[in-house]
Write a structure and sequence with these properties.
With 251 residues, this protein is mainly beta. Helices cover 8% and strands 49% of the residues.
Length: 251
């Protein structure tokens, strides 16, 4: 085999490997919608499990507030913390803390469950457009890593340690944008939501999609995957609603 033929073969092999590594194996599947609840919250953005069953945390991106809500959309607690543009939230049980994303400032705020600020962390994320910043945050207790998804320009999944020192980053390309994510410890997977594409992807820890689902949720900006109760929760910023889907059987 000549050298030129070998180089051509290697080039095609590389392209094929890249494509199969990043592209989903099949078309998006449909989800079964169970409930839609109206939220008395202006522009809910971000969603997280809490330390109480059937309770979720969300944030208001325009008023600087954290809300504890029921899984039926009732407001149970309101924390006024200020902030410029709150976009994501995650409860970390090991630290009994809430971690909140500020998109415009590229910053994470750590708070007590009562809303007292404990620490702030600056994120090393490019600012090509001030509104195309970090949108979602989640926590992997097995490796003690935070994952932050940048909406677009660039669309990247960032991995951080507990002090938000960058460990790794992975480009994302399976959707138009990326608005939220949640970590599933039962499968060691990430679930990533796209607002513009209206799809939800189960991914590996590098953000490579394995299964895609249609959500048909307009402006979905917060996500919780409840494996135990087989539920998916998505909050809609535009209509201030909580969508509840049945979680399909995983394989």
């Amino acid at each position: 085999m000549t050298r030129s033929v070998i180089l051509i073969f290697l080039a095609f092999s590389f392209v094929f490997c890249v494509k199969t590594h990043t592209d989903p194996v099949e078309e998006p599947r449909d989800l079964e919608l169970l409930h839609v609840y109206d939220l008395n919250i202006e522009g809910p953005s971000g969603l997280s499990k809490s330390n109480v069953p059937d309770h979720l945390y969300t944030v208001c991106d325009s008023r600087g507030r954290i809300y504890l809500i029921s899984t039926e959309g009732q407001i149970l607690l309101t924390l006024n913390i200020g902030g410029d543009d709150l976009e994501g939230i995650v409860f970390v049980e090991e630290k009994l803390s809430l971690y909140v994303l500020e998109e415009k400032k590229r910053m994470v705020i750590r708070l007590t469950l009562g809303g007292q600020v404990l620490d702030t962390f600056k994120l090393d994320i490019p600012m090509q457009n001030i509104n195309d910043g970090p949108e979602g945050i989640t926590w992997n207790p097995l490796e003690e890593h935070f994952y932050v998804v940048n909406e677009k320009n660039p669309a990247i999944l960032y991995v951080y340690d507990t002090l938000f020192q960058k460990i790794d980053q992975y480009p994302l390309s399976f959707a138009k944008d990326y608005s939220a994510l949640d970590y599933d410890p039962t499968q060691n997977k990430l679930w990533i939501l796209s607002q513009e594409s209206k799809i939800l992807a189960r991914c590996n820890l590098r953000g490579d999609p394995e299964i895609l689902y249609n959500t048909n949720v307009p402006d979905g900006e917060g996500l919780v995957i409840d494996m135990e109760n087989e539920r998916i929760y998505i909050v809609c910023d535009d209509t201030s609603r909580l969508f509840v889907f049945r979680l399909p059987e995983q394989n």
